[in-house]
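Q: My labmate handed me this sequence with no annotations at all. I'd like to see what the chain might look like in three dimensions before we decide whether it's worth expressing. Could you predict it?
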Amino acid sequence: MKFNDKISIIVPAYNVERYVNDCLESIAKQTYSNLEVIVVNDGSTDSTRTIIENFISNDNRFTLKSIDNSGPSAARNTGISLATGDWYLFVDSDDLLPANAIETLVDVIDYHQNKNKIILDVVCGSLDRFVDEPTKTNRPSVSHLISGKDATLNILYQTESTLNTSAWGKLFNAKLWQNVSFPIGKLYEDLETIPQIIKDVDIVATTEAIVYHYRITEGSILSTMTPKRFDVLDATQNLIDSFTFDKELKRAAEDRQLSAAFNMLMLMGKSGFNEEKATERCAEIIRKYRYSSLIDNKVRLKNKAGILLSYLIGIRPFKSKFIGNLFLSR
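A: Here is what I predict for the chain of 330 residues:
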């Protein structure tokens, strides 16, 4: 039987008047048509709401829900509460979807269900990053299968670009979200949530096909250094605490926190942000986990290089442009 399930696309929107029309247009042009699109206006103060209202008046698959400004987690949670689809797809309102994005993800589900008799609950696609115009090329839609636990390990160890903590670029069975919500008021809500979703899935499919165009914008929350950036340490600690039942997952979460601590030191050095308590918190994490990560054969070379540097030159915000670029790239 050909796959024809309804897919709910959840789009949080806050002050994106420059981008939201293009985002919605890329969704409307999807080659897979059985969609409902829930756009949650998160208390925008610019013309975002008006642009959305004008757009959705011509397409009854789109609905708009406006809430007081509460952040992206609350907006996504609102979208989830309103969704009636069999599957969920998250799209940020300044990003774009290739026209065949959903069809590509659906084809992976359809293929494995009909050809291999394998039921999938999550499909992860690839993304490209752009500033002005997304790439026009694409990659083969060959898919690979991996267990949920191994996928979670890859996510935490950051060893495969297709398997990452982002909510977008993935098609989720709606049942996975019945008792899950994004943490409100925190940055890195995806980091804390997506590994928890993936770990409970029997089999995850990945495809190298590009299914998401991620826009790089100046002034975004994650492109500037603020005290809120240290939420990443709380998010990774929550993962460590929640994975105490499994030694391998806990060890991977510890390494992810080590990586986050290094990343914060690089950002502090690059931006000139100097806060003694924040520096010491990062240093404590690095001292706690650096040896176990150094001898862990799953840990990526980038982290091991940082560990060796921490032994050689100490633990402090790094101002070296070379070192900063090394650790601030994925």
